[in-house]
Every structure is written in C-alpha cells, then in structure tokens.
Specification:
Elements lengths: L1 H30 L7 H8 L7 H8 L2 H11 L4 H15 L14
Helix pairs in contact: 1-5, 3-4
C-alpha cells in the first residue's frame, strides 16, 4: 500500500515538474530570455497564507541556521528541478526489491 502511494506521489511530482518546465519554457520563449521560476515563488503562490509563517516556524523549532543558509538556497532552485528530484526519489523508493540470490524458495 505504501509502495502504491509513493508511486502515485512520484508520478504526480514528475507531472508537476513537466508542467513547470513547459510553463518556464513558454515564458522564456515569450521573453526571449531564460526565465526559471524559483521554488520559493511557486510555494508562495500555492500557499499564500501559510508560506510567510514558515520562516518563524523553522527558526523556532529547528534553528536560525536552517533557514538562512539552507532553506533560502533551496527555495532559489528552479521548480522543475526540485519536483523532478523528489519525484525520482519517490519512484526509486517505491520499486520492488529484487529477490535475494542464492536462497532457495523451496520449503
């Protein structure tokens, strides 16, 4: 069941990455320059009420070091790249393990 859910989440993330790449490509062609949507801008668009509070939550529960050098740089990555990486990780985690070699399956 968890394998199935991971597979569904992985496919959804990869579909979002493809849609983000198409949107960035269309904007880049229209502007005649390379335009990539940062992941932080996508999160701010998807979660307009809760995203501004993420900073205070991270600084209180994890520490100020986690927000400033780490998450700020993470939110500057292109959206399609972040979604692709997480989608591939979910797909990789949901694959079946190969049967062990050298063990008999007979009782």
């Amino acid at each position: 069941m968890i394998r199935f859910l991971l597979r569904v989440v992985g496919v959804a993330l990869l579909a979002g990455a493809f849609a983000s790449a198409v949107i960035d490509g269309t904007r880049s062609i229209a502007a005649n320059a390379l335009l990539l949507t940062p992941f932080g801008d996508a999160c701010a668009y998807l979660f307009p009420k809760s995203f501004p509070h993420w900073r205070s939550f991270v600084e209180q529960h994890v520490g100020a070091w986690a927000w400033d050098p780490t998450l700020i740089r993470f939110f500057q990555f292109p959206t399609f790249l972040v979604l692709t990486v997480f989608g591939i990780i979910c797909m990789w985690a949901s694959k079946k393990r190969p049967p062990p070699i050298g063990y008999s399956s007979r009782p």
